[in-house]
Design goal:
Chain lengths: ~110, ~120
């Protein structure tokens, strides 16, 4: 079983749509959780951290359920510029290493 | 703040040659640097973790004699791919964490180096 699992997609949605991504992780001792976005042939960039209480940043809402080891990302009113690969990332271990999911590809269509 | 650079941004080399990639933290001291590799349509895989002044810790399956890591200062780490082969062609990304103003374990990513071995 992969440490971090995501639906690879691709998700093709029209502008203005709401899209949700899900992720599960296997290490119950994981400490921190993030969503990154990665554009084609570029490095990943931090989108937002994820907390159990849920957090929102504009059109983006992230949620963590530690009991079920499940992380989600909701994008509302999607824009063309949201097209990217979204990576679910878990931080764990004494060295605080990041483990990346395989990513979910999103294409927002005009 | 918290800028990480990599050099070169891309490199093409012949099979059997060695390639050195530099990772620099430009405006903060990076106590820990991480090296990742990403093959097409796959996610980032951690290769090794290095702390300034000590030997790197390699992930399972990563050959330490092939991927030489040096973290000689708080702002520079290098990855040398020795005797490169076509299967080493990949996107190599470094990240750095340390005294950057944010949480101590926040990783800041470099822009990556695309290696193509002919």
């Amino acid at each position: 079983r992969k440490e971090v699992e995501q639906d690879p997609g691709p998700f093709n949605v029209p502008e203005g749509a709401t899209v949700a991504f899900n992720c599960t992780y296997s290490n119950s001792a994981s400490q921190s959780f993030f969503w990154y976005r990665q554009d084609c042939r570029k490095e990943p960039k931090l989108l937002m951290s994820v907390y159990s209480s849920g957090n929102e940043d504009g059109r983006f809402t992230a949620q963590l359920n530690r009991a079920s080891q499940y992380i989600s990302l909701l994008i509302r009113d999607s824009k063309l510029s949201d097209s990217a690969t979204y990576l679910c990332v878990v931080q764990s271990g004494s060295a605080r290493q990041l483990t990346f999911g395989s990513g979910t590809q999103l294409t927002v269509l005009p | 703040g918290a800028v990480v650079s990599q050099h070169p941004s891309w490199v093409i080399c012949k099979s059997g040659t060695s390639v050195k990639i530099e990772c620099r933290s430009l405006d903060f001291q990076a106590t820990t640097m991480f090296w990742y590799r990403q093959f097409p349509k796959q996610s980032l895989m951690l290769m090794a973790t290095s702390n300034e002044g000590s030997k790197a810790t390699y992930e399972q399956g990563v050959e330490k004699d092939k991927f030489l890591i040096n973290h000689a200062s708080l702002t520079l780490s290098t990855l040398t791919v020795t005797s490169a082969h076509p299967e080493d062609s990949s996107f190599y990304i470094c990240s750095a964490s340390g005294l950057a103003g944010g949480p101590a374990d926040t990783q800041y990513f470099g822009p990556g180096t695309r290696l193509t071995v002919l």
